[in-house]
Write a structure and sequence with these properties.
It is a single chain. By secondary structure, the protein is of the alpha/beta class. It folds into two domains: 263 residues, no CATH class; 58 residues. Helix content is 47%, strand content 13%. It has eleven helices and ten strands. Strands 1, 2, 3, 6, 7, 8, 9 and 10 form an eight-stranded mixed β-sheet that branches. A two-stranded antiparallel ribbon has the order 4-5. Helix 1 packs across helix 2. The protein is elongated, with a radius of gyration of 25 Å. The protein starts with a strand and ends in a 16-residue tail after the last helix. One of its GO terms (cellular component) is endoplasmic reticulum. GO terms for molecular function: phosphatidylinositol-4-phosphate phosphatase activity. It comes from Arachis hypogaea.
């Protein structure tokens, strides 16, 4: 069974990224895997959380908005506060970074790695593992390469074990902190692998498993373990993105499936829609519930909350309708161009209008998205 603690910096996927000035990371989730057997209780805690730097990825109608690092000079302070909090609560910390080494993610990876080195100590260790480069989209068994790099930390810091009387026989003295960009899909696969290895250790310790025995050799236990972690990943993903986790078929079945790949495609499209056209309102609701925005009867709307300029008339359905209408008239005029050359110029005019409107929407994508109106994101 699981005990789950959800994030300090709560919010939706693209409106809550990175960490705040106090070092609290977005989508920070503590997961405790608990096993009870023959009067003994064993548990193992892992955490996940967004890269603890000041960065954003604001929706702008593109499928993958650009990453923006902010206040570079404050990065060491924010990251140090984050790891100080982890060390006080859990002991030693192993940060496993799964993001891509190149591209937009690469900038975050480089900044994270270089900043960690400034605060590194005997209790803080950083390991980068380019999940997509090593594992691709189907070879998740290659995570064994990562496990070989971190197994010494896990062996040293152990897990919690209580006997029949509730007396502590063994104590967990450190934590594995895993992150990708969303801390969902790649993180789910990786944490389930670590959780599986730890459960096997615990079962061997209690004499249930032999030295070489594994969970996969017990079909019923293997299926239940996979379902437990797959459901866990889906729950975390749903509260952060609005959809179940991607790559969930590997966690649930132990391998990628054609149906799972199709489901991932659908969920990726659904995430795009929710991120761009729904999550702003959902973020407002979260901020209201958390008290980040206090409603007052005598409080007038601030000027910053009022729509101004292009934002006051921005409507994606209207813009899309105008673009399609323009192309329709362009095609109609082009068909008439063989009889009257003036229709050819009309066709160019309508096409130009459509392209111009599309260019305005593309250049001002953020204005056409559903954004929070109450508690503005940090800048």
């Amino acid at each position: 069974m699981f005990h789950v603690q959800f994030p300090f910096l709560k919010g939706t996927r693209l409106w809550r990224r990175g960490a705040d000035a106090d070092g609290y990371a977005a989508n920070f989730v503590e997961t405790e895997q608990i096993m009870q057997l023959n009067g003994y209780t064993a548990s193992f805690v892992q955490v996940r959380g967004s890269i603890p730097l000041l960065w954003e990825q604001i929706v702008d109608l593109t499928y993958k908005p650009k990453f923006e690092l902010m206040k570079h000079d404050e990065a060491p302070r924010v990251l140090e506060r984050h790891f100080l909090d982890l060390r006080k609560k859990y002991g030693a910390v192993l940060a496993v970074d799964l993001v891509n080494k190149h591209g937009g993610e690469g900038r975050l990876c480089e900044k994270f790695g270089s900043t960690v080195q400034q605060v590194a100590s005997d209790d803080v260790r950083y390991v980068h593992f380019d999940f997509h480069q090593v594992c691709g989209h189907i070879h998740f068994e290659r995570l064994s390469i990562l496990y070989d790099q971190i197994s010494d930390f896990i062996d040293t810091n152990g897990y919690l074990l209580l006997n029949e009387k509730g007396e502590k026989m063994k104590e967990q003295r450190g934590i594995v902190r895993t992150n990708c960009i969303d801390c969902l899909d790649r993180t789910n696969v990786t944490q389930s692998m670590i959780g599986r290895k730890m459960l096997e250790y615990q079962l061997r310790r209690l004499g249930v498993f032999g030295a070489e025995e594994t969970i996969s050799s017990h079909k019923n236990l293997d299926e239940k373990f996979k379902i437990l972690w797959a459901n866990h990943g889906d729950d975390i993903s749903t509260q952060y993105t609005g959809t179940p986790a991607l790559k969930g078929d590997f966690v649930r079945f132990g391998h990628r499936t054609f149906q799972g790949i199709l489901k991932d495609g659908w969920n990726a499209l659904l995430r795009y829609y929710l991120n761009n056209f729904s999550d702003g309102t959902r973020q407002d609701a979260i901020d209201l519930l958390q008290g980040h925005y206090i409603v007052s009867v005598s409080r007038d709307a601030t000027p910053s909350s009022k729509k101004q300029g292009l934002e006051s008339i921005a409507s994606l359905p209207l813009a899309l309708g105008l673009v399609l209408t323009g192309f329709f008239f362009a095609i109609m005029s082009l068909n008439q161009g063989r009889y009257d050359y003036r229709h050819f110029f009309l066709s160019l005019m309508w096409a130009g209008i459509s392209i111009g409107i599309a260019a305005v929407v593309r250049a001002n994508g953020r204005v056409f998205c559903n954004r929070p109106r109450l508690h503005k994101p940090r800048s």
